[in-house]
Amino acid sequence: MSIIHNNGCFKLDTKNTTYSFQITKFGFLMHTHYGAKISDVDLAHVYPLARNRSFINAPAEDTEMVLNINDVPQEYSAFGIGDFRTTALRVRHNDGSRAADLRYQSFEIIKGAAKPEALPGATENGEEGIETLKITLKDTATELYVNMYYTVYEKCDVITRFNEIVNKCDTPVFVEKAASLQLDLFHREYDLVQFEGRWAQERHMKRSALSSGTQGFVSRKGTSSHQHSPFFCLCEKDTNEKAGGVYGFHLVYSGNHRTEVEVAQFDNPRVLMGINDEGFAWKLENADKFTTPQVLMTYSASGFGKMSNSFHAFIRNHIFRPKWKNVRRPLLINNWEATYFDFDQQKLIDLASTASKLGIELLVMDDGWFGHREDDKTSLGDWTPYKKRLPNGLKPLAEGINATGLKFGIWMEPEMISEDSELYRAHPDWVLSIPGRGRSLGRNQYVLDLVNDEVREYVFGAISDVLSSANIEYLKWDMNRYLTEVYSATLSADRQGEAYHRYVLAVYDILDRIITKFPNLLIEHCSGGGGRFDTGMLYYSPQIWTSDDTDAVERIDIQYGTSFGFPVTSMGSHVSAVPNHQTGRVTSMDMRANVAFSGTFGYELDINKLTNEEREMIKAQTAFYKEHYNLINFGDYYRLAHNDTFSAWSFVSGDKKEVLVFYVQKEGGPNGSDVFVKLDGIDPGACYKDAQTGEALYGNTLKNVGLCVPITQGERKTMCKYLKV
Ligand code: GLA
Fold this sequence. Notes:
With 725 residues, this protein is of the alpha+beta class.
């Protein structure tokens, strides 16, 4: 049993962690612990409620002032009644007042997982024994309720949470803020680890000590953004890959988000994560409810490595749709960096026919196949084949590709519209825009108002028609700008604060209907590379184009950062041409492959322009990737070293009998000393054999001494070693 209830105390246990809270004086729900496993269910003796402090704010009925609302660690706090820290919930009542006084009302233990309605979230996916705790809180003065759902995934060491705000008042209530997660901690000796960046440099890890006041990060871009991933960690000062306490949190959401860590006056941090409340207000009429996105939480007492592996396994097993759970996906070639807009049917078939001889299994036709799309200024919204490139449409092209032995995939950017398009000429009002204001362009395009049902139906129909018109087995769903002038003519003035979130819900709705109608379709998500790389999108598409930057050196930092929260099998990663199109850097074919192997692996270059020798290398690489597919995609992942000079990582099979180690040097240079890469996660008692050299290497030597990588002058060294017991 993973959920224990005893006399108003609740204890949620996973294999290695405990999360607990209990009802305290006057019905407040007090958070008591999240961290390594403990035995106590009732922790009242640990937390003195009454403290001899001035400026206490007690609840209305606490005439003796024993409870300080501003001091108690709470499960879900509300604005307006004396908790002066940043609060999880802020509501505006019909009379204009902004307050809610949330007290415990009831609980229920439910068999199975809970997922927020109309939103992506974790599911059981065939695993038994999963339980959910539902807690209901009620506002003392009104009929406003909060239902909190905690699902315990015991084996994975993950707990998920989301909340419903339910209005049973006769009058409307506006939800102005509703966090998905609140976690009150007891001391401030933590570092905040966030994953920040920009286009082509996403998810760079940044670690900084907590200081008093509020720190955190947001997205106001309508997407989860290139700048701040909705994933972060809080770790102890000395936490490293192998040791130390660390919390990890994912928001399963692809729109505006906010993470706040406020270190309050007594050095007690409050962590909130959820939809960004800027520009947000959701009107609840009587009997309506607002459902927050879900948060995934894990805790590791043994460093970042364990935290990452818990999330990797969890995402593979409980976020991916059952169809893609632990399944091998095709190795692809994408024509974007190979041809850009300069292609036609024959060129693609030529590419596919060479690709098929090299072990590649799928060709993805990227941007430029529709309307009269000569460049990025036209035709988004007109999803009919461009006669100049595909004179006979998609069917003969798909057949031609299939005849080479490859599957066929297609690129679309369904949420967008170009001013130069039939769609815009017919429906200029279908754009997300504010009457009387100019319409901001991003990459020469506008965003469709998906809040409008008619527009949403058009988009669903357009995707559906394309997918039904030929044998299309893969869809690259792109999104190449942020949202501005977020206003929908279909919403009343008092509901415009819902537009950002309704847009995200509409995207999810379309995705949901597409995967239901085309159950075998594989979707790769993309937003100018990794601008919408989040667990929300991973629910619909098990792989996301990690970044538009395909340079191997740049990718080391991007994939390193991404790996903290996301499994390698979700990271789109391709070998591209040199000099690299984003950086101009030249790296060896080996290095490009060694970096791209740690992802979905594929190619994005004109293989018809390569030498025979290079094509032979590709053949060897595709064979290598297929041979080690399970180890890379489903094995445990270890970050072994990462600094300005080099990076090393490895994959270890569940039975510890197979190990794949990668090492890449970021820049060549003079001098330098030999590097020793110490392996992690292996069996110290076993004797491994190097598949290439036949050399026998003891596990304890590999662990304690390491593999020596001699530095060679001037060269950017790279190494890949497969070891097997
Ligand atoms: C975005 C994507 C690229 C490519 C182009 C096409 O930038 O990230 O991979 O599909 O759009 O326009």
